Each structure stands twice: as C-alpha cells, then as structure tokens.
Amino acid sequence: MSRLSVFWFLALVVLGLTACASVDTDANALAIARTARWGKTVLGTTPYRLALFGPAQPRADNGVLTVYIEGDGLAWLDTAMPSPDPTPRNAVALKMAVADGRSSVVYLARPCQFLLQRDWTRCDVEDWTSGRFSAAIISSFEQALDQLKARSGATALELVGYSGGGVVATLLAERRSDVARLVTVAAPLDVGAWIKHHDVSPLKGSLDPVQGADRLKPLPQVHITGRKDKVVPAAIVESFVRREGKDAPVKRMEADASHECCWDEKWPALRRQMGDAPHP
C-alpha cells in the first residue's frame, strides 16, 4: 500500500471512529439532560444551527432567563490534528446547567456540537479552532438568544459561559443591552494573553473580549477560576478584569477545581454564594 493510500485509510478510520463517538456523546448528553426532565432541540440561526438542551417550555424567573454556553469541546485530537467533530466528550457546561436545578435555565452548545454532520449548515475546522470566536459565530448566538427570550417571555438574560463558552458569553454581553449578569467559569477572557502564556498560534478570525472590555463596566459580573486549572490560570482572568477598571462591578471567585473537574459538583454551592442575577 502506498503512503498516500495509508494516509487516506487512516483518515477514514479516524472519521469513522469519530462518528461513532459523536453518537455516544450525544446519547450521554441526552441522559444527563433527562435527569432534569430536559429534552434536545435545534435552533435555526444564520449561518449555524445550535443544539439546545432545556425544559420543553423554558420560563424566565422574574423576567430573567439563564443561558449556559458550552466550552470548546473536542477541538483537537492532538497538538497537530484538529478534530473532525467538536462535540465534547465531557459536557461540563451541560452538567453545570443541570446542577443549577432551576426551571429558568437552558443550555446552548457551540456550533457543530451535538449535531449529526448531515445537519451541519456550515461547519469547517476553523469554526472550532482558529475561528472559534468569529463574528459569524457571535451573530448566530445573538439570534439564538433572541429566540430564547421570545420563547420564555424573558426581558433579560444571565449568561453563564464555561471555558471558551465564557469568551462567547463575554463577547455577547459586550454587544447586548439585555444582559442582567455575566458569569464566566475557567474562561480565557484575555485571549491574547492566553495565547502568549501557552505559546500557541494566534486565533486568526476570532474576536478578543479585551477589545470591548470597557463596555462591560456597568454590568454585574462574576468570574470564577479553578485553583488547579493549568489551562486557564487565574492571571488570564485578572488581566481582563484590570482592563475594565477598578469601578467595574466584578466579583472574583475561586474554586478547588481543575479546568474540567469537577465544576458540576461544586456548582450548587457556587451559585448560592453568588446569589441570583439582578432583576431587570
């Protein structure tokens, strides 16, 4: 067998194994969601479709709907090979959303996560690697949030983002006037500083929340880091908070957690500590 043939054979094996793994992870996510009597739907936005887990009829609590946003998922198979499907093996934000325990909560996956590839409207490797925080992705999330407000009757949103989902949540909060509170968990909010810290390639095509940090000054925020987190050290979050200035209404919290473990177990206590989002 020629080298080229071997390459394509291995590529097909990886794609086949990934497809099987994607079905398994989707089933696992549904099992997690069903513990809260949640189901799964797909929101149509332009240009992406987004997987939504939550109650059949989400209802805002005193006008506020809480939206959890997932992390980057399985973006890379190793340091050199991007994944053909970014569906997370460990849906940290979904577990956190279920652990929240309230009826005014929904969960949004990132583009191309928890979707069969035949349902992808626009999914390229760049969408979960270098362009994971692109303007097009943020636009799709804005449309999704508008749909969720209409469904639930919410007048305001609490955005809770885990890891890269915290970056997405922050970019959304910088652009919207209906966010009651922003909560991030283990999120690389200063993307440039995070890239420099890990000495990795720049995220070409992605937005960086530090560019709009001053827009958040009036917004109540909670930024939580993990004491054992080597992926997103606390200094990365502090770098972002400093750009907002001393007068920004920011609460910093720390938990005895690594980047992925075990936020859902600690989440009910953390939620109690931060209290409810301000009512609109």
Précis, in short:
By secondary structure, the protein is α/β, with parallel strands linked by helices. Helix content is 36%, strand content 17%.
Describe this structure in words.
The chain is an alpha/beta fold and 280 residues long. The protein has a single domain (3-274), classed as 3-Layer(aba) Sandwich (Rossmann fold), CATH 3.40.50.1820. It has 7 helices and 8 strands; from the N terminus they run H-E-E-E-H-E-H-E-H-E-H-E-H-E-H. The protein has helices spanning 3-34, 92-100, 135-152, 164-175, 191-198, 234-244, 263-274, and strands at residues 39-44, 49-54, 64-69, 105-108, 156-162, 179-185, 221-226, 250-255. Strands 1-2-4-3-5-6-7-8 form an 8-stranded mixed beta sheet, with helices on both faces. Strand 7, helix 6 (234-244) and strand 8 (250-255) form a beta-alpha-beta unit. Helix 2 (92-100) packs across helix 7. The longest helix has 32 residues, at 3-34. It is globular, with a radius of gyration of 18 Å. The chain starts with a helix and ends in a 6-residue tail after the last helix. Residues 1-21 have low confidence and may be disordered.
Characteristic terms for this protein:
single chain, 280 residues, alpha/beta, Rossmann fold, globular, disordered N terminus
Topology:
Elements: H1 3-34, E1 39-44, E2 49-54, E3 64-69, H2 92-100, E4 105-108, H3 135-152, E5 156-162, H4 164-175, E6 179-185, H5 191-198, E7 221-226, H6 234-244, E8 250-255, H7 263-274
Parallel strand pairs: 3-4, 3-5, 5-6, 6-7, 7-8
Antiparallel strand pairs: 1-2, 2-4
Helix pairs in contact: 2-7
